[in-house]
Design brief:
alpha+beta, Porin, two-stranded antiparallel ribbon, 7 helices, about 45% strand
């Protein structure tokens, strides 16, 4: 639940190019063609002045290639106020109007480009193609789906304690116990399934999201679970700042009963800092409320403030770091807690069909109060490190298989909660079925 960005990135990457209609070229493809042709002509037009706000134009291109023609049109109009002689921007505005179904306005802009800028043959051919097929009368967006099915083995499916001995009390009241086998690691094989759904709702890029996850163990059925998440995301812009706002609700079923409900508000912002085409810096803030219907004094509210830095080239690298504050319900063991979360993700294409993923995460929590006075007389400190490695092989344009390994080391100063686990799993994935 706490990483909505993983779902969004997965669906967006999986659905690239899904908005093209039949054999026609999508507006995103047209924008790419326009950019290439305009760039090739730029050297021949030394008299044309440099646009004062290239960032605004690049943002309009991102909106157009993301199938957000209404937002692209608004950004292009602002850009053309400063640079009325930018031929590429006028043509992009015409394509945006055509994608919105404004045929008369698109035709007026096409004529403006033809008479005012005398475009090269490639641009004239593109305009002729749009005239021949007509403009959209009603924008439509295709839903994106991802289905997964996996089979694997976890050597500690119940997160059993690493040490069978456990102490309570202190000083003369110190007592040592030997844990029941139910609290020790249990290995088991498991079958997992998942379904992701994303639907664009309007020209501005608002999204409806849904995610279902299930896991069934062969023997340790008390650890079987099913989860559901639904969310709504909307892009925003304030001056030169831009980003996304997300609201999400989720539920987790464990041991054949509702175990957890969670609501989350998340805001992601990209500051107006020029870092180049491939490097992106963003800020993150979120607020979540977690409720445990079957547990007493477990409910909590968590605030997260952080930042991420991403490199998007052939190799994709993302680093994020966040501060966490968790305020628990009155009477919760250990009281309130604070900590941090860090993640490093690497995606590397090895061949045309084979891709490697590597991820390292660390989460640290420090409780403010003694965990259980007179029984466990220390404040709980938790340090969880997870390493994940995967190889994904593309079978077809829409199907792939993935071999995944994941190791978790949960180090704690209360031995009852300390555990290690390793999982290996083979997954099959089907995109946009």
């Amino acid at each position: 639940m706490r990483r909505l960005t993983a779902l969004l990135l997965t669906l967006c990457l999986a659905g690239a190019g899904a908005h093209a209609r039949g054999g026609e070229r999508a507006p995103a493809a047209d924008a790419a063609v326009v950019a290439a042709i305009v760039a090739s002509e730029a050297a021949a037009d030394d008299a044309a002045p440099r646009a004062p706000d290239e960032d605004l134009y690049r943002e309009a291109m991102r909106a157009l290639t993301s199938d957000q023609p209404e937002r692209a049109a608004a950004l292009l109009l602002r850009f053309l106020e400063h640079e009325p002689r930018h031929a590429g921007a006028w043509l992009d505005l015409a394509l945006s109007q055509c994608a919105l179904g404004h045929a008369d306005e698109a035709e007026r802009l096409f004529r403006e480009v033809e008479t005012r800028f005398d475009p090269p043959p490639g641009i004239r051919e593109l305009i002729a193609q749009h005239r021949a097929r007509g403009c959209d009368t009603k924008p439509s967006w295709k839903a994106l789906w991802v289905a997964t099915l996996g089979r694997g083995h976890d050597d500690n499916v119940n997160q059993g304690a690493s040490n069978a001995l456990f102490s309570t009390g202190s000083g003369s009241n110190l007592t040592q116990w030997e844990l029941d086998p139910d609290f020790l690691p249990k290995g088991d094989s498991q079958t997992s399934a998942g379904l992701d759904y994303m639907q664009q709702l309007d020209e501005n890029g608002a999204l409806l999201l849904a995610q279902v996850r299930m896991r069934h163990n062969d023997h340790v059925h008390e650890q079987d679970y099913a989860s559901l998440l639904v969310g709504y995301e909307r892009p925003w812009q304030w001056g030169a700042w831009r980003g996304f706002g997300t609201v999400a609700l989720s539920a987790l079923r464990l041991e054949n009963q509702l175990y957890q409900r969670q609501g989350q508000l998340q805001l992601r912002a990209t500051p107006p800092v020029e870092l180049g085409e491939k490097l992106q810096w963003s800020l993150l803030g979120s607020l979540s409320h977690v409720r445990y219907p079957t547990r007493t004094n477990y409910d909590s509210n968590t605030v997260e403030l952080g930042s991420s830095l991403s490199w998007r080239g052939r190799r994709q690298v993302t680093f994020s770091l966040s501060g966490l504050a968790d305020r628990g319900e009155n009477g919760r063991l250990g009281g309130n807690r604070h900590g941090w979360y860090g993640a490093l993700q690497l995606n590397e294409p090895l061949t045309d069909r084979l891709r490697a993923d590597l991820g390292l995460t660390r989460q640290v929590w420090r409780s403010s109060d003694v965990y259980a006075p007179d029984q466990i007389d220390i404040a709980r400190h938790q340090d969880t490190v997870q390493l994940r490695a995967a190889l994904q092989w593309a079978l077809t344009a829409n199907q792939s298989v993935q071999l995944e390994w994941r190791g978790v080391r949960n180090k704690e100063n209360i031995s009852l909660f300390q555990y290690n686990s390793r999982l290996i799993q083979l997954n099959w994935r089907w995109d946009n079925f």
